[in-house]
Amino acid sequence: MIDKAFDKLRPYTDKEIPAAVNRIIEHKSFPQLCKMLYPNKTIEEVANILKSFNTIYEFQKNFALRMVLRIIETTTNGLTHSGLENVEDISNYAHLLVANHRDIVLDAALLQAIFTENNLQTTQITVGDNLMTDQLFIDLAKLNKMFTLIRGGSKIQMYRNAILHSEYIRNLITNENESLWIAQRDGRTKDGNDKTQQGLIKMLIGNRKDFIQALRELNIVPVTISYEFESCAKSKTREIYISKHEEYQKDGNEDMKSVMAGFTTFKGRIHISFGKNINPILDKIKNSDLPNTEIVGVVVNELDKQFYTNYKLWPNNYIALDILNNTNKYESEYTSIEKNTFVKYTEKIINEIEFKDPEIKTILLGIYANPLKNKLGLN
After folding, report:
1. Distance (Å, whole) CA 198 – CA 304
2. Spatial separation of the C-alpha atoms in residues 276 and 33, rounded to whole Å
3. For domain 2-310, which CATH number applies: 3.30.160, 3.30.1490, 3.40.1130, 3.10.450?
4. What is the pLDDT of residues 132-161, one digit of tens each?
5. CA distances from 58 to 177, 357, 359 (A)
């Protein structure tokens, strides 16, 4: 029964490529997609390129990578990475990559681009079923090895889905030897505080009685992404502000708007850091007789420690904290030009938000200052 339930979660197989490609070609947004990726080719030529792919990896290598590289070229000042040696065996040895989460789709897409360009096996990617509404997105997502997390429902449904997700992930890593990317929490980090949810660790453990062994089997490696200019900073600031005063209600198409904003807005420099497998930490506490709740706490703390340590700080992070504290304590970390650029950037966002409240500025600056505060807090 569990194996059959996996079918509604899993990405497409190679055999499902032709049907998915035909739906993509027939979608009303396909001409726009062609114009963005292949400005010098006709729609028919792009359709033939898509029809030529026989494997998911071919699709990722020759089409999805092109999409990501186009986004990097037009909306960033470059993508760098560090610590790849910590997962260089990913093509032969499966890992669960637990990541901080700043952009709905782009975080994981950039990660796959790094793997593809380094001739490493790509990972499956978790995506919430709230995004699986438009057929074009569904087909592009499942061709890019996205597996669906089922959200919502009654408490018993949520529990059953959590067990299903847990079994899927464990089977993927321990039996299929395929790696997976998953966010450290439900939804994106809005305020810049990359805090791992204990619920995620409990879900990964599932119904296993030996917590440490259950986690060791997954080969968990934290992955940290750092944007110089925060993805969707305006909408995140607005959501935080509204949530402080009333219950925030998403409009029906908000998630897809955020996806497109992540693709199109300027993000400056981006860095992805691969941390170290947490199994040595688990080995240290293996015979410590810690209660299960404390084991979960140890794992959460280790992940957060690596997220905070490995976060690539940009001048904007230091500028934001100095402005918040009305000091020049970190002025050696940025130039006057960088500060003027950041101030103009924040002023533009503040002016575009309909609420005229000084708290808006504090929230926006906090998004940038919090990664620095977290790193300082480690000391």
Report:
1. 11
2. 37
3. 3.40.1130
4. 888 998 999 999 999 999 988 899 999 999
5. 20, 50, 48
